[in-house]
Amino acid sequence: MVWDQVQLRSSSGNHPLVSGHPNRPIPKLMVCSILFVSLTYLLYTLKLLTTSAQQTFHHTPFTSYLRRSTSFTSAPLVLNQTAVTAPLHHGRRDVREKQKVVMQMGQAPPKPKPTEIHDVVFGIAASSKLWQQRKEYIKIWYKPNQLRDNRTLPPFRVSSDTSKFPYTNRKGHRSAIRISRIVTETLKMNMDNVRWFVMGDDDTVFITENLVRILRKYDHTQYYYIGSLSESHIQNIFFSYGMAYGGGGFAISYPLAKALAKMQDRCIQRYPGLYGSDDRMQACMAELGVPLTKELGFHQYDVYGNLFGLLAAHPVTPLVSLHHLDVVEPIFPNVSRVQALQRLMLPTNLDSAGIMQQSICYDKTKSWTISVSWGFAVQVFRGIFSPREIEMPSRTFLNWYKRADYTAYAFNTRPVSRNPCQKPFVFYMSSVRMDSELNKTVSEYERHHVPHPLCRWKMANPDELETVIVHKKPDPHLWDRSPRRNCCRVMESKERRRMVIDVGVCKDGERQCKWGKPRYLYRLCKKVQLHTILDLHLVWEKCF
Description:
This is Fringe-related protein. InterPro entries: DUF604. Pfam families: DUF604. Among the domains are: 117-300, Spore Coat Polysaccharide Biosynthesis Protein SpsA, Chain A; 347-504, Distorted Sandwich (Cation-dependent Mannose-6-phosphate Receptor, Chain A), CATH 2.70.130.10. The chain has helices spanning 25-58, 61-68, 74-84, 91-106, 131-141, 175-180, 182-187, 208-215, 233-238, 254-269, 277-288, 308-312, 337-350, 387-390, 518-528, 533-540, and strands at 120-125, 196-201, 205-206, 225-227, 250-253, 293-294, 303-305, 321-322, 358-363, 368-373, 377-382, 397-399, 425-435, 440-447, 467-472, 486-491, 498-504. The protein is built from 16 helices and 17 strands. It is extended.
């Protein structure tokens, strides 16, 4: 039909658009030529399409490239294009292998390995005058087989000369400038595979497993300045509530240490009137715009006296460090400071995550309140105390500023007892072992005999107890979950002078509070002669 319209008429119908006689042979020859060329082109096109389809069936990377081009980034696309140029004889199996490589390359990059203790470099500030005495503290926590150096003690370094830096604080010592530059000088040693720098003093004891647990929470490729405050409110006011105290230890990520090294010397020049090394460090952190990330497990312990009240009510966080061990009494009675810390390491080696963690339970039949600080001590109280009361540290210690009273602490405290009958019976950890059959630790706590006032309360007397046995399953993933105290349960015991307690993860619906009958508590209230609203509140408070 198309070719019938080759010789068309004009709109008037009188003159043909193509000149010439219709019977002449030239137009017929043109038609034949056009038909021949068209047929040849059609056959060539069909053959080309057939060949292309066969190649596509046997070799599919190009199809894969088109199908996946909307879901991959540019790097996998380059790999696909490379696969297109591969020889045809590789076949389908080779194509699938290449596609598998492309899929793997298109996935998100693998997560970095978690931080280990060998990723940490410790910088310990020490004095040559006190080294013979305080090196014993370092031996307690330093693990040559796990850390970067296989010596019994870490290698020594003498800090560089700082006489060019001004120091105008009359109450301090200019050695603080040298201590503040430990991180920078350690960085310049160009150690490999360092993620964190951790500062401490020679009288600081670290629980290294818990330190690693804390550091794993944070991205070591970012700027982090991690530590904690002083226990003294006056100290924090005088220095800063945004400063990590160096004795309790603090951690600085590697990128932050690099940034600090570039500006620290100029920064120190601007603060000649500061007292110590840690406030100089915090001043430079402020100039870098990096705030303190607070972790309560770093303990400065700016207190005097007995740490029992603080340790027996440790906050719900891993115990990371202890400081000022030369100032306070030994944490276990009747032994030296070093021996007491060596004893603490026994349960730490079995369950570092649970060391010092408090659990609260009740013996309803005897109306006793029991507080377990695992690996350290057990307290037994006459009467029923709320968890809100027991989780507060009792004031067995004195403020760093001796003229200050209990209101000068940076946390809540409570008296050791409000009534002579409420003085706790204390049992200190004496031994611990692992029961392989039960897969539990078995720790034994012996009674610490001190005089107790005469009590006329008509209830069971804890004075009859001599030993407390605590069963606890090690829980290395305790801090991978949301923070919560463990629960404890008083078990049956065949021996009258022995109490058996089981400590573990709280069960569904289990509360750490079991009150007695209200009428009995009311009668107890009258006998005890409670005089304050606070005391009544302790008896009647609801437990959540």
